[in-house]
Automatic annotation (TrEMBL):
Source species: Streptomyces liliifuscus
SUPFAM superfamilies found in the cross-reference section: Protein kinase-like (PK-like) (SSF56112)
Transferase keyword on record: yes
GO molecular-function term, one example from the UniProt record: transferase activity
Keyword set includes Transferase: yes
Source superkingdom: Bacteria
Residues of the Aminoglycoside phosphotransferase domain: 32-271
Gene3D superfamilies, per the entry: 3.90.1200.10, Phosphorylase Kinase, domain 1
Protein name: Phosphotransferase family protein
Key words, A-Z: Transferase
A Pfam entry, by short name: APH
Length: 340
């Protein structure tokens, strides 16, 4: 297919559906391109030459396993749009697989930059970098301040026993990709289980909240939070723990997993924690557990990628080094728990 007709996106059928369901929205022939950067679901930028939209759909050939994600993503973004949480405006949810071969939804295109590395942040300078990262904390506080029931999300998840289920889920994921000895991984898993904290009042949880999952505008304000595929109702401090984890340098040059922690001006984890606590009013005394859990979760994810690499099921550069990162994440997790 040409770049104007990327795989998985039939622009003629999309135009026909939009003209039928949202008459007057599109004014001209559509062109589209695949946006790089997404790890699972496919994201396309579509334009009629005047306006721009984004189409999200499951990966090609994996419809059944992820079809429900589209409805959930569309639901949470639509529910949050009237609140202070910055999300794109949704335009359409289509569950008819005859249109694009899978369920999908359409939302407005939001201009902004997802900063993935310290090198990308460098041109901003220390002061603007600091402001962007602190804004990330403030926006997380806004998300966690939303009452799920007030925006129609009271049944969006099962918050009771959330942490225990999460720990068991990622333990099963680890078992599914075991093909080598990983010193400390079972010790970390067990220690997390023994020290399970009491969760605060449940909120909408993003599930993958970090700097490269938001779009930052030229004014350094966050314009949109993206990639809601792991969102649910649960313990808000899991989002904070993940954000803290991504704010700690890995200590590995040229790591295939990008973090922005080394950027000049990037606030220290302690400042992020203190700011979240002050603005949210939540008790963050157990944040070390949540940060250690984030290290464990990412170690499991990376081990799964490494496992697929050993089976020849990955495509692209950098996968040969993923396996070397896993022990680093395990060690960080153990140290975080031990030091509290």
């Amino acid at each position: 297919m040409s770049s104007d007709h990327p795989p998985g996106l039939d622009l003629d059928r999309l135009r026909g559906l939009l003209d039928s369901e949202r008459p007057g929205l599109v004014d001209g022939p559509l062109t589209g391109r695949l946006i790089e950067g997404g790890r699972s679901n496919l994201t396309y930028a579509v334009t009629d030459g005047t306006s721009k939209w984004v189409v999200r759909r499951p990966p090609l050939g994996h419809v059944l396993a992820t079809a429900h994600d589209m409805k959930r993503e569309h639901r949470v973004i639509s529910a949050l749009h009237p609140t202070a949480v910055p999300v794109p405006r949704t335009r359409l949810l289509c569950e008819d697989v005859e249109v694009l071969g899978a369920p999908f939804y359409v939302m407005d295109f939001v201009e902004g930059t997802p900063y993935r590395t310290a090198e990308q942040l460098a041109p901003l300078g220390p002061e603007r970098t600091r402001g962007a990262v602190l804004g990330l904390v403030d926006t997380l506080v806004e998300l966690h301040a939303v009452d799920p029931a007030e925006v129609g999300l009271a049944d969006f998840g099962r918050p009771e026993g959330f942490l225990d289920r999460q720990l068991r889920r990622w333990g099963k994921q680890l078992d599914a990709s075991r093909n080598r000895d990983l010193t400390g991984i079972d010790e970390l898993h067990a220690a997390l289980g023994r020290e399970l904290p009491n969760s605060p009042t449940p909120t909408v949880v993003h599930g993958d909240y970090r700097l490269d999952n938001v779009l930052i505008g030229e004014d350094d304000e966050i314009k949109a939070i993206l990639d809601w595929e792991m969102s649910t109702l649960g313990d808000p401090l899991t989002d904070l723990g993940l954000l803290v984890m991504y704010s700690i340098p890995l200590g590995m040059p040229d790591s295939p997993v990008s973090t922005t922690a080394r950027a000049a001006g990037h606030p220290e984890p302690a400042e992020l924690i203190e700011r979240y606590a002050a603005r949210s009013g939540r008790d963050v005394s157990a944040v070390a557990w949540y940060t250690a859990f984030a290290w464990f979760k990412l170690a499991v994810i990376l081990e799964g990628i490494h496992y697929r690499y050993t089976l020849g099921q990955t495509v692209g550069a950098g996968f040969d080094r993923i396996g070397d990162l896993v022990p680093v994440f395990i060690e960080h997790g153990l140290t975080t728990l031990q030091e509290g």
